[in-house]
């Protein structure tokens, strides 16, 4: 059945299910079935009808009001302000023309919603727009605002893009032969440039497209015949926003890809932030610039966000569902249901099988799972991390010792994930007087990344949400934290006599403002550098961690050798990756026992060790493939 015939059939079913609603049109926009209605107010009382229709049609459904039925944004704002009590403290409106929604940010969202949603229904009847209420973020994020404004300004182009994607998804299935295979294009027996190609006779799905941040063999094998031409790929799926998983996504659009990128809403915003910083840092450090900011924007136009647990068609024979991975904000385990029950395969991305201060532990409950492709960053038999509380106490002890010597503590950290974990630990230590009179400086993108965390509280764990919104205790906006947002402020922090703690990017010392601090602080034995995250082989961070006493640095084309006299410490336990025990426990805890487990994203010995141990312990078939290997699953 062709797409037009399929849509005609769906339109008949929709009209039969919604007899009181004047359906103007039905069309696909990406994976979503959009139903245009002339009288959306009739649906204000019929949420269950829409849910039942979506279940019957097995489609994600979006009800979009006919543009003629929508009040102009400025008029709609005034009407909403008249409806909503002042006590709600509405701070902003964002009109999403793409979805026919008005996002209302308020200090007290419960008042905007009203008892049993009565206020929302009143708003929809009055203005036509479907209201979505969000709590005003405690820290305003420029990235979130810029992404929203860009998507708004390009909504007409996006609509055409989504229509083309919708036609491709629903083009029908034409192959009788059934097979499933995965080609490993990067991140196998190594950490960095994660990239995997999932193929069936009908579909090509690219999972992650990262860069190797150690500058050694930076790119995945994107030139292999299976990927050519790039526009033959049905979809790109991004598990999370770290550059080793998403850093080279924009380059796909340079060489012909025009398809969708599926990811969670926080991953989208963080990905834009980190990719733009990747360009800026590369230019500043004199590294080759592999793409420009216009390609970041082009990629953004093709993004389709999916929340956890939402089943989404992404090709004629593949459905995607994201589950919490517990690694960083919005990180996902990508689960693919292939065919009508033919095969189920999950890509773990990076995951943490332990509740942290920020996130719940990684999800283990899948309806079906025949194969799992999982990380092995800490896969060796002796890769055990201390408990989080023990790690926090050790960090505080190191800081105290350094402060007693009137020194400074430099903590290189990723802007996303580890920074916020360390911030919460330090805030508690200062608030409870374990550390006194200490300023914590945040440099690089840490402050902006933290702002994005506050924009998506639903992705944080319940305890942290309650602490922020119900007890009025937000660790992210503590007076102990000071943002460093200029080179002159950075120089002041370096020169001041008082001891301090400095959190700065990047986490592996391969660029970013941390380099300036290290250059000036390394030569003084009163100071300390503390590594709280993974240091990949070949990075400056790994060399310092190994004990190098002299390290070469390059800045603006000038090379110099820096003597390392500062104290070098590593505090394990803050990692967003699962340690060996957690990796093994994760496989055991899976609700559906897989037939195969494939280990990736780890040094060669760690991938092999973990694969061997899973086989011996659970009698599950395992593999640790090399890059460019292909494994057939069906």
From TrEMBL:
Residues 71-138 are annotated as: KHb. Residues 576-634 are annotated as: Metallo-beta-lactamase C-terminus. Keywords: DNA-binding, Endonuclease, Exonuclease, Hydrolase, Metal-binding, Nuclease, RNA-binding, Transcription, Transcription regulation, Transcription termination, Zinc. One of its GO terms (biological process) is DNA-templated transcription termination. Residues 192-388 form the Metallo-beta-lactamase domain. The keyword Transmembrane helix does not apply. It comes from the Archaea. Residues 382-575 are annotated as: Beta-Casp. It holds the Pfam family KH_TffA. Residues 96-171 form the K Homology domain. Zn(2+) 1 binds at residues 240, 242, 327, 350. One of its GO terms (molecular function) is DNA binding. Its EC number is 3.1.-.-. Binds 2 Zn(2+) ions, which are required for nuclease activity. Homodimer. Interacts with RNA polymerase (RNAP), interacts with the Spt4-Spt5 complex. Terminates transcription on the whole genome. Termination is linked to FttA-mediated RNA cleavage and does not require NTP hydrolysis. Cleaves endonucleolytically at the RNA exit channel of RNA polymerase (RNAP); the 5'-3' exonuclease activity of this protein degrades the nascent RNA released from RNAP. Belongs to the metallo-beta-lactamase superfamily. RNA-metabolizing metallo-beta-lactamase-like family. FttA subfamily. This is Transcription termination factor FttA. The gene is fttA.
